Amino acid sequence: MLASRNAHKARELERLLPGWTIEALVADGWPEETGDTYESNARIKAEFGRVVLGPGATVIGEDSGLEVDALGGRPGIYSARYAPEGAPAIAKLLGELDGIDDRGARYVSELVCITPRGEFRGTGTLTGRIAREPRGHEGFGYDPVFVPDGEAESVAELGDAWKERHSHRARAARALLAALALTLLVAGCGGSDKTGTRVLQRFFAAGPVARKLGTRFPHKPGTLPCTVNDGGKTVQATCATEVSLVKPDKAVVTLTEAWNHGAKAHTWFFFIRRDGSVQSVVQEGSPSPVTTTTK
Ligand code: IMP
After folding, report:
1. Which CATH class name applies to 2-179?
2. Angle at which helices 7-16 and 168-179 pack, to 10 degrees?
3. pTM higher than 0.85, yes or no?
């Protein structure tokens, strides 16, 4: 359950968390967002969801906002309250930036997922600049005036499919998935070292790609020092392997190659099918390093 009144976010998150069904919480008496960080506001929403639904529920709270450099990071956590969402908020923002050449900005998304087994978090950012006029029709909020770094079009022009891969929320969702895969699924669901090792042996023998990965990553849950080529430079990194054992025949293997140079990280999620074949989803160059764990 997503504790949010923003239907766009529930739809976006459902696309971002494969295999999850995300419903937007319908309730009265929503609490005020009195926190002074995205995280505390996200937690206020998630905790409200747990009060409404009971302690057995898994509830995600999300808080996000737009931080504009020339405005000292405003509207930030107050983005939803800056002005009515859509055209009025955009008009106010463009008015404040009138005549200002520094157009740098970033979107931030913080996800707090409260489950019966504990709390998990994911953070994501998307950097870019504020355009001089709105363009495009997809997305919501400030998307018509937000142009991501490396792009010429606004997020509203780039569209929902682009957002699914690159948005601040997409990045936060992947970080949340990584946190869940690394912690909740491994530690909390009764997997044993033996089963994990068996699954990983099968995984690393599954085909040429997996065999190649097997020369780099530990063959049991844990970490290994390694080196990566970062734009022509060889840098020290950590290669980590984890495996979720909720359904051992459909285990998610998480391979994380993380290095601190430039705070970049690659995360590979691998999915083992019943027949032993492997499907992977790759997240490349996320802006903040993904946590690695040792066992
Ligand atoms: P929240 O629902 O309290 O987290 O408010 C977030 C606000 O930040 C929204 O109302 C939008 O104004 C802005 N925002 C957050 N994410 C996005 C996005 O993906 N596109 C455009 N605006 C966004």
Report:
1. alpha beta
2. 50
3. no
**Nearest of 28, 20, 196 to residue 111 by alpha carbon:** 20
Does position 292 have pLDDT exceeding 50, yes or no?
Answer: no
Lowest mean per-residue pLDDT among 193-207, 237-251, 271-285: 271-285
CA of 168 to the centre of ligand 1 (A): 10
Angle at 123 between CA 119 and CA 126, to 5 degrees: 165
- Biggest alpha carbon–alpha carbon distance for the chain: 64
Domain spans, the chain: 2-179, 189-286
Half-sphere exposure of 178 (CA within 13 A, CB side): 31
Which residue numbers are catalytic? 63
Tell me the CA–centroid distance for residue 178 and ligand 1, in Å. Answer: 23
Summarised one tens digit per residue, pLDDT across range 169-213 is: 989 988 888 777 665 444 434 445 677 777 788 888 877 777 888
* Rounded Cα distance, 217 and 240, in Å: 6
Q: Is the peptide bond before 75 cis (omega within 30 degrees of 0)?
A: yes
Protein residue whose Cα sits closest to atom 8 of ligand 1: 65
